[in-house]
Amino acid sequence: MKPQLLVDFIKFIRNNFKTVENPEITIEVNPKTYRYEDFKILKDWGVNRVSIGNQSFLEKNLLSLGRDHKPTDTIKTVEDCLKSGINNINLDLIYCIQGQTLKDLEKDLEIYTSLPITHISGYMLTAYEDTPLGVLVKNGSYNLPDEETSSKMFEFIDNYLESKGFKRYELSNWAKEGYECKHNLFYWTDVNFLGIGISAWSYVENLRFGNTKNINEYFDLVENGIKPIKFKEYLTQDKKREELIFLSLRLKSGVDLSLINDKDIVKKLVKEGFGEIKNNRFSLLPKGLMVLNEIAIKLF
């Protein structure tokens, strides 16, 4: 998208909706997309946070992931952001790539933490069905690390980033103090949010709804004054409690013990090293985060 299109969108929101003072406005870019002039235009209209889809600084990892940018492209993007006056910068990191070692991961993290950025999102490479990667993994053309290696990589990332001043506040997110991503926290803390556009999801007054993923259908519906909503789910109190447990477990702060009916399960999980209890909240340790789904089901 041209920066001016994003500016027009920001103007539209400001002219038609009431917003908080100095809202966090994030844009997500690939390392080769925008340069200083583009960031300057966006900064002048209130964009104050940039998330860069870097994934890795090692060329062999970028090739394995099918990325077409070079590590120098990312460094240039960070420099141009800072030059424009935007200093709240996130870099994405992918781990559990085929052939990746802990030494590779350490090299990557050394570069990430040497840059003047404020936030790192670290995602384990996951092969979803019906995706190109999913097909490659299924037929044995792409090999993901085993569960033990994946767990070691997560612990290594967590310990390394903590030692460099990036504190984990959510399963996949580390930030310097005061730079936790506001919209990330919305998703995990039961705050209403509105998603606009194709495939966008919203959560308003216990109702979750999602728009169509088909771009032609989206245009047809919107142009005919029909809401492009294709999925709706109303959360009952029981469902909301279960979801709050699951989402809270992703957070470093954990889940309020009052939401959990069977406290004996929590005691057992603590004893086995999956989590800990502080200030009447149960939070997962790295060992527990690796099996978050299974633990959440036990606590429902």
Question: What can you tell me about this protein's structure?
Answer:
There is one protein chain. The protein has 13 helices and twelve strands. The protein has 300 residues and is an alpha/beta fold. The protein folds into three domains: 3-178, Transcription Regulator spoIIAA; 189-234, no CATH class; 237-299, no CATH class. The strands form three sheets. Strands 1-2-3-4-6-5 form a six-stranded mixed β-sheet, with helices on one face. The protein has a three-stranded antiparallel β-sheet with strand order 7-8-9, with no helix packed on it. Helix 2 (36-44) runs parallel beside helix 4 (71-84). It is globular and about 55 Å long. The model has no long low-confidence stretch (mean pLDDT 94).
Oligomer: single chain
Structural class: alpha/beta
What is Rg? 21 Å
> Which percent band covers the strand fraction?
15-25%
End-to-end C-alpha gap: 43 Å
Spatial shape: globular
Mean pLDDT: 94
Largest sheet: 6 strands, mixed
Poorly predicted ranges (pLDDT <50, ≥5 residues)?
A: none
CATH topology of the largest domain: Transcription Regulator spoIIAA
SSE string, helix = H, strand = E? HEHEHHEHEHHEEHEEHEHEHEEHH
Enumerate the strands of the largest sheet in spatial order, edge to edge or round the barrel. Answer: 1-2-3-4-6-5
CATH 2nd-level architecture of the largest domain? 2-Layer Sandwich
Q: Please, how many domains? A: 3
CATH class of the largest domain: Alpha Beta
Could you estimate the helical fraction of the residues in percent? 40-55%
Please give the count of helices.
13
